[in-house]
Structures are given as C-alpha cells and as structure tokens.
Amino acid sequence: MRALVTGGSRGIGKAVCDCFQKNGYDVIAPTRAELDLSDRKSIEAFVSRENDYDIIVNNAGINPLSEIEQINQTDLDSIIQVNLVAPLLLLKGLCAPMKQKNYGKIVNVSSIWGLVSKPGRVMYSATKYGINGITNALAVELAPYNILVNSVCPGFTNTELTKQNVPPEEAVRLCKDIPLGRFAEPEEIAELVYFLCSKQNTYITGQIIAIDGGFTAR
Q1: Deepest of 5, 95, 111, 198, by most Cβ within 10 A of its Cβ?
Q2: What span, in angstroms and rounded, lies between the C-alpha atoms of 172 and 97?
Q3: SS3 state at 124
C-alpha cells in the first residue's frame, strides 16, 4: 500500500509518516524540491509523474497570523494556495487511479480553527473551514468508488508551528482551557489519521473529527 503525506518532514506530518512506515506502508513524503505546494506548476508536474496512491494525507499547511485590518495580499494569496488550492489540485490529479482501483483513503488535516476560531485566525480559519467543505463534498462524490474521505482537526499540539505561534506563557494558560489539561503529542494525531486510512476503517467517511482534548466541547 502506498501513502502520500504532504508536510512529512516535521511535526504531525513526520509522526504520520513514522506511524504508516511502522505498519508496513510504503510512504512517499515529497520534499519541497519535489513538490512545492506554493507553485501550481510544481503540483502539476508532481501529479504527472507520481499519481498512483492508495492513501493521501493532505497535511502541509501554513498559519500566518493577522487580524482583519492588517492582512496583506501576499500572506492571503500564500495561505489560500498552500492550505486550500494545493490539496484540491492534488486530489484532482490523484483521484482517477483510486477510482480505477475502486479503493482509496483520503485524510485532510484540518484544525480546530476550522470548527471554531479566535482573533488573528481569519485567514487560517477560512482555509480550514474550506478544507472541511472539500472533505464533505468529496466523501459524497467518491463514495461510489469505495474511497473514504475524512478531516482530522487537531487542537493544540506540541509541534514547531504551534511553538512559533504560542509563547510558553500562553501555552500554560491554554492548558487550563483544555479539559485534558495538556497539548496533544504529534503521535496521538498520527494514530487517528492512521486508523482512518487503515483497513480497519470501512465505513467512516465525510466526517470532521476533532482531536483536541475536549477543547471544542467546552
């Protein structure tokens, strides 16, 4: 079984790659030189030469913070391209072989900010709500081909991206708002992604699943 994982060099993506490899999957985690999600021509070139996968995990993403009046066009264009357009173009190019095999599992890594939001997350939330919409639409469209499509929405997780955006003192405060009282580890997110892509999952599709220690249940 072949699995494509974007953003597989660190954080949740690396944990996903490690989990799949541990379970005997052939994992392809392209470098930016091999697949630049900010460049549509790079995506087209990648799809033209690498298009036969059993599993696709759209994990890569960026998260520039900005309140509405401070948004600049460069950041807006970049986040829409990387977080929303790129996964859609990848799926556009990679679904045909799955349909021919009548088998496939797709997981889009979204975020709790695709379920709720907060100041400074307007661009990020827009893309993550969008990726959840893609999940719902494709789950219906691809169901006749036995292709299951789900979103995983991690909460606060101990990754480099989180550390960039959450100062240590804020992390301590945030843990008080999480019913389980701590951030997730990347491996915990990876186990959920793996289950949804594994042969054990035969009927879960079109779901937007929060894995956030109870944060969005408050």
Answers
A1: 5
A2: 46
A3: helix
**Helix (DSSP H) and strand (DSSP E) numbers for the chain:** 8, 6
* Residue 3 · residue 57 · CB < 8 Å: yes
Integer CA distances (angstroms), 68 to 24, 73, 82, 154, 170, in order: 45, 12, 20, 24, 22
Q: Which of 156, 169, 176 is nearest to 11 (CA)?
A: 156
For the chain, what percentages of helix, strand and coil (3-state, to nearest 5) are there?
50, 15, 35
Roughly how many angstroms between the first and final C-alpha of the chain, as a whole number?
39
For the chain (218 residues), the mean pLDDT of every run of 10, in chain order, is 97 98 98 97 95 96 92 97 98 97 98 95 97 98 98 94 82 95 98 98 98 96
Sequential DSSP letters for 193-217: HHHHHSTT-SS--S-EEEESTTGGG
**Structure tokens given for 161:** 């991206």
pLDDT at 195: 98
Interacting residues of 40 by C-beta distance below 8 A, sequence separation 6+: 81, 85, 89
pLDDT score at 35 = 97
User: How many C-alpha atoms does 169 have within 13 Å on its Cβ side?
Assistant: 0
- Closest to 132 (Cα-Cα) out of 103, 112, 155: 112
